Amino acid sequence: MSTTVFVAVLGAALLHAGWNALVKSGTDKRAAMGAVVIGHTPWALLALFFVPLPAPASLPYLTGGIVLHVGYQIFLMRSYEKGDLTQVYPIARGSAPLMVALFSVLVLGVQLERLEVLAVAIIGIGILSLAVVRRADGYRNGGAAALALTTGLFIASYSLVDGLGARLSGSALAYFSWMALINAALMTLYFALRSPATLGRIARHGRVPFLVGGAASYVAYAVVTWAFTQAPIALVTALRETSIVFALLIGVVFLKERLDLAKVLSTAATLTGAVLLRFGRSP
């Protein structure tokens, strides 16, 4: 993994943690999540003026990715309605790199060096260990944990599908921009059918998540989609999940969630894995 890709993915991780904290901090999680997803629209439309159409070979992956992203967004929204950022985020993001690495090696035949395997494992263990800590009120939340784990399954699935699709598309930005545009339309349709009042709340009160969260989310995953074409999918996914470090800091400093020794140690493990991942393979 080159230095450019490494730094770009870390930047994407920071943006990702930021928009998740924005969703979690709002009183209306559904409206905030919807505003972020729909907020991809202006950026995706702008990008489409400068990129070619995705290659036909990538269209099945594009279709599958859209379905998986919608599922991810719905389950993430429900998770944040039940659990803390410092509980939901670690489980959802921490389970994904382990699933992706296992699938990449066993099914796709990707060869990872020993140090890279160790780095992925340390990152996953470090993040998942955060899931055992208690939430802000001192109690554990099994329902939120189950929803977050399901969210992690969607993350692992769309990471693999998008990574393969972006490589076949001829343009990672075109691939993601079409996905973002269709995904925003589907999210709008979902709310129109299931909760029309949510669309009204987005229009009235969703300006910040639409503009700020939408931009951060779009740029973050556009960078990750590009990185999938530059480095092994398993490594990009693992490094991206270091966003939990940023989420932990945001959760403690701005959302006033609990900080204890377990969170500090888990964060240290995650950072150690990220450093090993950077030096696991020569550029």
What is the multimeric organization of the chains shown?
single chain
- Average per-residue pLDDT, rounded, comes to 85
Question: Using only CA atoms, what is the Rg?
Answer: 18 Å
| Alpha-beta content class | mainly alpha
How many separate helices?
Answer: 13
Strand proportion, as a percent range, falls in: under 5%
Tell me the total number of β-strands.
0
Q: Using the alpha-carbon principal axes, give the shape.
A: globular
Characterize the structure shown.
With 283 residues, this protein is mainly alpha-helical. The protein has helices at 3-25, 29-38, 41-48, 59-82, 85-106, 114-129, 142-169, 172-194, 196-205, 207-228, 233-240, 243-253, 261-278. Helix 8 (172-194) runs antiparallel to helix 10 (207-228).
